[in-house]
Amino acid sequence: MNLADMLTFADIVHLNRIAVYYDCDCKPNSKHELIQGILTKLGSSSFFEMQVKELRLSEVRFLNALLFDDRPYFSMEELIAIAKQSVEEDGNPGERPRDIVTRLRSSGWLFNGSTHNTRYLYQIPLDMKERFRRVMVHDFQNGMTRVSEPSSYRDEGHLLAEDLRLFLQYMGQHEVPLNPEGAWYRRHQQQLMEHFHIAEPLLGKGGWRFGYGSSFKFYPDRMALLYDYARHSKYIEEKGDQVVLTAKGEAHQEHQEHTIEDEMIQLFRFWLRLYKGAVPNLLSLVYWIGECARPWTSSESLFVHIGPLIRPFYYDTPRSVFDQRIIRMMLHLGMLRQGEHSTGPSVQMTAWGLKLAGEYRIGRNDSGIRLH
User: Fold this and answer.
1) pTM for this structure?
2) How far apart are CA 43 and CA 217, in angstroms?
3) How far apart are alpha carbons 31 and 247 in whole angstroms?
4) How far is CA 365 from the centre of its chain?
C-alpha cells in the first residue's frame, strides 16, 4: 500500500504524532484534515528531499536495510534487530535501536498492518520506498567524480564460470589429498592456479580469515568462492582425507547442463548468500554501485558516498570491505571493469553487471526487492 492508504487505516493517535512531527496546521480531532495535511507536506518533492537529507546516518542505514528486504511485514523485534545493526559507532554512541524505530514511526515511515493478522506488524509505504530510492540515487550520482575511459582496464567477463569448469576438469584428472587442517596442500593449489584464467597468490601464514565462506580461511578469495560453490552444488565432496569429484560434478563437466551465463547468475546469487553474514546490506551496496557507476567513475568518490553504509566486520574496515569484498568480487563476477587513472582506480559497470542489477525491482508485489 501507498502512504495515502496507510494513513487512512492509521488510528488518530498515530496521525497526530505525524502531524506534530511535520508541524501540520490541522485539527487534531479531524482524521480527514490530518490525512490531508500530512499528504500535502510529504507530497512536496522539495520537502521530502529535505527530510531525507536530514535523516541521521543510523536512520538512513535502517531504511536502506528495509528497502532491500523482501519481507512485506516486520515485527517490532525484527525492526529493533535491524536498527541495532544500523546504529552508528561514532557521533551518537548512546543512541538506542528502539529510538530509531520510534522516530521513524512518528515521521510516517512505519505503519501497523491493516488486518487482524498484521495489526502488530509494521511496513513502509511503497511510494515512500520508491521516493527514498530516487532521492538517494540522485544524491549519490551528483557526488560521483566521472573520469575518462582509461587506456587499459581489467574486465574478467565470464571467466569465473570458465574457471569453475577448469576446476572440475582438474578434479577429474587428479587425486587431491587434504592436509590435517582439511585444506588442499599448497602444491595442488598452485597447480590449480596454473590452470585458471585468473590466478591469485596463495595465502601466506598468519592472519585471521573468516566470515566469507567455510573455505575462506584456506584459499584466496576467488578460489574460496569457487570451492564453496562447487561443494554447495555437490560437484565435489570431501571424503576423509581427500576431496573427490562427484557423479553430479562429472555430469556437469561433460554435459555442460548450465550455459556460461546461467552459471554466472548462480555464482552471483551464491556470492550474495555467502557474504551476507559479514555484509548484511550487500544487496543494497551492489544496487547503489550499479546506479552510480554506469559511466567510468572514480572508486574514491564511490567509497566516499557509499562507504558510510558499510559496517566494519571484525578485522575488515569499511574500506577493505568495499575494496576487497565488494568491488574486487564484482570484478571477478564480471559485473564491472576496473581501470587506473592518475587520480587513482576507477570502475564502470559492464552490460552484464547492469543486466544482473536490473533484475532487482523495488516495490514489487508489496514485497520490496526480489531477484527473478
Assistant:
1) 0.91
2) 51
3) 66
4) 20
Position 53, amino acid: K
3-state secondary structure the chain: CCHHHHHHHCCHHHHHHHHHHCCCCCCCCCHHHHHHHHHHHHHCHHHHHHHHHCCCHHHHHHHHHHHCCCCCCECHHHHHHHHHHHCCCCCCCCCCHHHHHHHHHHCCCCEECCCCCCCCCEECCHHHHHHHHHHHHHHHHHCCCECCCCCCEECCCCHHHHHHHHHHHHHHHCCEEECCCCCECHHHHHHHHHHCCCCCCCCCCCCCCCCCCCCCCCCCHHHHHHHHHHHHCCCEEEECCEEEECHHHHHHHHHCCCCHHHHHHHHHHHHHHHHCCCCCCHHHHHHHHHHHCCCCEEHHHHHHHHHHHCCCECCECHHHHHHHHHHHHHHHCCCEEEEEECCEEEEEECHHHHHHHCCEECCHHHCCCEEC
Amino acid residing at 29? N
Taking residue 96's Cβ as centre, other Cβ atoms within 10 Å add up to 12
Instruction: Give the residue carrying C-alpha cell 576423509.
Output: 240
pLDDT, tens only, 57-105 = 999 999 999 998 889 999 999 999 999 988 865 556 678 999 999 999 9
Among the listed residues 182, 168, 241, the one whose alpha carbon sits nearest the alpha carbon of residue 217:
182
Burial of 78 (0-12, 13-18, 19+ CB in 10 A): middle
Residue 372: which pLDDT band, with cuts at 50, 70 and 90? very low
CA angle at 118 for the pair 101 and 61, rounded to the nearest 5°: 25
Mean pLDDT of 7-18: 95
Give Cα 101 distance to the centre of its chain.
22
Mean predicted confidence (pLDDT) in 220-232: 98
Per-residue model confidence (pLDDT) at position 371: 40
Query: Do 110 and 79 touch, CB atoms closer than 8 A?
Result: yes
Fill in the amino acid letter for 288: W
Q: Give dist(CA 18, CA 213) in Å, integer.
A: 44
- pLDDT digits 0-9 by tens, 182-219: 999 999 999 999 999 999 999 998 778 999 999 999 99
Q: Which of 302, 310, 326, 305 is nearest to 61 (CA)?
A: 310
